[in-house]
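Quick question: what would this complex look like in 3D?
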Amino acid sequence: MAVDRRAEVLSATDVGRALTRVAHEIVERNSGVAGLVLVGMQRGGVWIAEELARCISRFEGQVEVPVGSIDVSMYRDDIALRPVVPAAVTDIPVDITGNTVVLVDDVLYTGRTVRAALDALLDHGRPRAVQLAVLVDRGHRELPIRPDFVGKNIPTHLSDEVDASMTGVFVVSTSIEKAAGKRAAS
Amino acid sequence: MKHLLSIEELTTTQLTSLLDLTDHMVEISGRPVPKVPALRGRTVASVFFEESTRTRLSFETAAKRLSAETMTFNVGTSSVNKGESLRDTIETLAAMGVDAFVVRHKSSGVPRMITEWTDASVINAGDGWHQHPTQALLDCHTITRSFGCGNDLSGRTVAIVGDVKHSRVARSNIRAFTMLGAEVVLVAPRTLLPPEFIDWPVRTADALDDVVGDIDVLYLLRMQRERMDAALVPSLGEYSARFGLTSQRARQLKHDALVLHPGPMNRGVEILVDPADLPGSRILEQVRTGVSARMSVLYTVLSGGSVPPTGGAE
């Protein structure tokens, strides 16, 4: 029998603080918000992109940073291996050509989803630059991809699952028997 | 889902997920470069034993937007005319490496037979009087999205007008509309209703005037001129008088009623007004949606693998 152990690594307050810091870092790195577009990756990244935009407009005053969402299902490299069902329809409200796009996701793991997102994004235009912001980096990269902004680095076991939401970040560890074959998860 | 042979075989959940997936394909189709790499390396062969340029082009466009390779088997110039059997034709093409066959045939049941001869997916693009499932899918998408009612047609009435008996479009659509909760009324001369309609969950009406003011969707079928030869209707003029969409009947339609037609239209027979003058006409929208709906079907039958989906974060 598999036993799940669910450990809180970030509380709701911690998540709020981490996102506020990331929002500041984004503005600092880009010397302001001009030409900035936040694009959340479906599904987990969308609420974070919206939250970051809220933070930025709170401390930068009257600015509205455009927020979009992108579904990367059609660009994944594992479509032939498993059923891939898209989430919500891609919605990028502004032309990204010439702008700086910050891709936003909840958990960075193998990097394969980010690779797909880069391809998907480039089909919508030619951004001046693309940066990556994640709430959690759990390691185990399979591609040469690195985040620009990280809420929290959390070392994990391959068989762990990371559950990130506004209410906190939890690591769910499962016993070895149940974990077998979960490696491909990405 | 490995094949799409008939709407009858779909669960309501499968039907609604195909409709939801079509929303994604509409978004892709609206981009400056309407192409995604989803089905790279897959080959889709269209095998039309009965010519239908628009359906074939719609499927081929759909395959190309998903980056699949396309292969067209042209019956007119093929060895079918030298006496090659259907099975040999399919097995020959399959040996070239085909992942999905899109099949149109004048005999009902041919797409199902083909599934027994090949490991590839088979999509029914119309077989005899039996089924035309992608037409039903694009019609359901066009209607539900025009009304903005999600995937729910309950409380709405759809009138299907014309030659129901010889219509695979009608058979697929009656099932699909009913699955989404719509009430279906068949409006046709008795000679053009199939005997089995008694068992269908539908009402019937003997003239378009009886229902035109009460319906939410007017679905006109193509009236095939060759039916005249079989003496199933006295004359095209008489058919138009009772079942054609005249400008007078168009004025009686509800203000938000939709008018659909699977094409090609017989102007002057089933439709006597210019569709461009009908605010509720969705006839060109149907053609546009057709490509997206077929993308959704190709993606669904070709993307699935045996590895279960993962719920884990990345």
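Answer marked as accepted. Residues 13-78+86-157 of chain A form a domain with the Rossmann fold fold (CATH 3.40.50.2020).
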